[in-house]
Write a structure and sequence with these properties.
Layout: H1 3-20, H2 22-30, E1 38-39, H3 45-73, H4 77-92, H5 105-129, H6 139-149, H7 151-171, H8 178-185, H9 190-196, H10 202-205, E2 209-210
Antiparallel strand pairs: 1-2
C-alpha cells in the first residue's frame, strides 16, 4: 500500500487550496444547510469546520497506515488488505478532465469514502462476531462530512460503500481461518486496544457536537 502517494497528493492539493480556497467556499456555502443535529461553536464556526474537514482528509493516510500495520501485528492482514487497497485506489484515482484538481473539496469525498468503507467493515464485523474490529468511533465525523457533501451525493457514496463491503464480505473465507478465530478470542487484548487508543473521534477534538433528539 502506497500511503506516501496519498500524503503527497494531499500536500499537492493543499497548495492549490491555499490559492483557490475551494474547500473554504464549499463550507461557507453549506454551513447553513448542515443537519440540525450538528452543533458548532458559537464563535468562528466556519473556521472550526474548515479545520475539522482538513483534519478529516489528513487522517486518511495515517488511519490506513495504522490499520495496515496493526492488522499485520495481529495476523488478520489478509482480511483487511483488500479493503485498504480499495480505499487507496479510490483516493488516488484521477479526477475527470471536466473537474481538474483545484482544491481540497475534491478530496473530501475521497476521504469520506475511505472512512465510510472502514466504518462499514467495522459494522459488518460486529454483526458477524459480536464485537467491533476497531475500538474507535468515526461515526460522528462521517455524519458531519455527509452533511457537508450534501444528502444526495453522500447517499450515493454510501450505497457504493455498502455494496462494495457486502460483496467483499461474501467472498471472504477468513472467518474460518485459525488466525482469525484466535484474534476473535483475544480481541480484548491490551496491545490491540493500545494500538488504537490515539484514534479519537475527530469531531470531539474541535468542540463540534451532535445532538440526537427525537425530532432528528
Amino acid at each position: 500500500m502506497d500511503v506516501q502517494a496519498i500524503r503527497n497528493l494531499i500536500i499537492r492539493v493543499k497548495e492549490l487550496e491555499a490559492q483557490g480556497k475551494h474547500l473554504q467556499t464549499l463550507i461557507s456555502d453549506q454551513i447553513e444547510q448542515l443537519h440540525r443535529t450538528i452543533e458548532l461553536p458559537d464563535e468562528n464556526a466556519c473556521e472550526t469546520l474548515l479545520i475539522f474537514t482538513m483534519d478529516y482528509i489528513d487522517h486518511v493516510p495515517d488511519f490506513l497506515e495504522a490499520l495496515n500495520e496493526a492488522s499485520q501485528q495481529v495476523g488478520i492482514h489478509s482480511f483487511i488488505s483488500p479493503f485498504l487497497d480499495i480505499a487507496e485506489e479510490n483516493f488516488l484515482s484521477p479526477v475527470t478532465q471536466d473537474q481538474p484538481l483545484s482544491g481540497l473539496d475534491l478530496l473530501l469525498d475521497k476521504a469520506y469514502f475511505a472512512h465510510r468503507l472502514i466504518e462499514e467493515v467495522n459494522d459488518q464485523y460486529l454483526v458477524k462476531t459480536g464485537s467491533t474490529l476497531i475500538p474507535m468511533n468515526m461515526t460522528w465525523a462521517n455524519l458531519i462530512v455527509h452533511s457537508i457533501l450534501g444528502e444526495s451525493f453522500a447517499n450515493e457514496l454510501d450505497i457504493i460503500v455498502d455494496k462494495t463491503v457486502d460483496q467483499m464480505m461474501r467472498s471472504q473465507a477468513i472467518y474460518n481461518e485459525e488466525k482469525f478465530k484466535e484474534f476473535i478470542h483475544n480481541r480484548s487484548a491490551e496491545e490491540w486496544i493500545r494500538i488504537w487508543s490515539r484514534w479519537n473521534c475527530l469531531s470531539n477534538n474541535l468542540g463540534i457536537e451532535l445532538k440526537f433528539t427525537s425530532a432528528a
